[in-house]
Amino acid sequence: MANSVMPIPRTTDAPDEQRLMECVHCGLCLPTCPTYAELGVEMDSPRGRIYLMRAVVDGKLSLSESYQQHISLCLGCRACETACPSGVKFGQLLEGARAQIEQADAPRHPPLAKWLRLLAFKGILPRPLVLSLLGNALLLYQASGVRTLMNHPALARWLPARLAALDRMLPALPKRSVRARLREFTPAQGERRGRVGLLAGCVMPFFFGQVNEATVQLLSANGFDVVMPRTQRCCGALHAHAGEREDARHLARQNIEAFAEARVDWIIVNAAGCGAMLKDYHELLHHDALLSGAAKQFSERVLDVSQFFDRFPFRGPLAELRIRVAYDDPCHLVHGQRVREEPRRMLRAIPGLELLEVREADWCCGSAGIYNLLHPELSRQILERKMQHLAAVNPDVITTGNPGCMLQIGIGAKEHGLAAPVVHPIELLYWASLAAQGRPIPLKQPGVGRLHA
Ligand code: SF4
Ligand code: SF4
Predict the structure, then answer these.
(1) What is the pLDDT of residues 48-59, one digit of tens each?
(2) In what order do the strands lie in the sheet with 324-327?
(3) How far is residue 133's CA from residue 47's CA, in Å, rounded to a whole number?
């Protein structure tokens, strides 16, 4: 391995020595690691990566390009955490390793990469107004017909591969009206049972506005006031995963304050990646003398929407949905939050719905934040494995609770000629509730017409 000289910063964000020592090198995590399965290289396995991190912390290895590549190739899916009998917190170690690299290596990024990171992490994600403008621009791209034109076979072959890949990732965007309908406060219907906050997310309002709408309507129908604080910000997950821990802390502080002001009993999240991040705020801020206590209290009140409806089952009538459904576990729900059965129970509560057994449902789909952009080939290989298992059960609908996974599996479904739409589990509960009231089910996606409600 090349061992070029590079100063190694000893920051509070570097992988924790004690935590690194918890790995006993048993290798039980290896069969669950998607990058090890694809590449067959020990250094691209959890055990190998921990070994490398330890060598860096011990000063035996520098932050060489090869080291950075092994760390970069990790999906951060945390399947190794679920498998590990010693309780190694691999996700924390990985973020520490990336922060260490970032703090040492930031000045060496090529100018374009530096500019893109600056734009994404400082210019777009933390700024709701910029996000909103970007969302509207994408909507215009779709509504004006430019998108259709770009996808015309005569033009499509001239598009740069990266741009074509980005376009493929875009779902059919919901109309602006879905976003406009969501207010800062939605009162409880019927007997009031409490007050909850909803994390709106960065991607969800623009790509999957109907998911936020379904969440708000169901929470309200279940007797909860719903607050979506205007001062809430991006959860900071993408920042933390990319080693930008200080920016992530800044966003965490803003969110803790926003939801404290909203005086809510629970903070509901319908995006698994954001939920895992919010539940880790206490880790992120554990050195913060002022906020570590508040961060712990905040994290304890965060629930994935499926956990919430498991604790407070939906009390309204539900119509039959006679559909065969394949559920795919988002990594940051099943491994990051250890939420496995709750979404399945929520889906099984829908009359008529048949929940299919899918092989390796808890295996990563290759989305992993922006992994599919950073490592497109490996991401594709991992997606291919997922799609073969999904295609084998030939579902009417595929469902998963994270926007990145919805986009990635949506691409896979299209390429495999699967007619099954990819929706969020909360949408299915909402459709059953709408149908019970004699209201139409959204029929945007192909295949939904086969529903019997
Ligand atoms: S987080 Fe996922 S990809 Fe990374 S080492 Fe663990 S199992 Fe492998
Ligand atoms: S991370 Fe856990 S499962 Fe994997 S080698 Fe270390 S101790 Fe064993």
Answers:
(1) 999 999 999 999
(2) 354-356, 324-327, 397-399, 422-423
(3) 43
Q: Is 405 in the pocket of ligand 1 (CB under 6 A)?
A: no
Q: Residue 102: name the closest of 88, 118, 90 by CA.
A: 118
Cβ–ligand 1 distance for 80 under 6 Å, the answer: yes
**Rounded Cα–Cα distance for residues 332 and 75 (Å):** 11
Of ligand 2's atoms, which has the minimum distance to the CA of residue 83? 3
pLDDT of amino acid 171:
73
Closest atom of ligand 2 to 25 CA is: 5
The dihedral through the CA atoms of 249, 369, 405, 330 has a sign that is negative
Handedness of CA 200, 351, 412, 38 (dihedral sign): positive
**pLDDT digits 0-9 by tens, 319-375:** 999 999 999 999 999 999 999 999 999 999 999 999 999 999 999 999 988 888 889
Nearest-ligand number for the alpha carbon of 26: 2
The model's pTM? 0.90
Strand order across the 224-227 sheet: 185-186, 224-227, 194-198, 266-269, 302-304
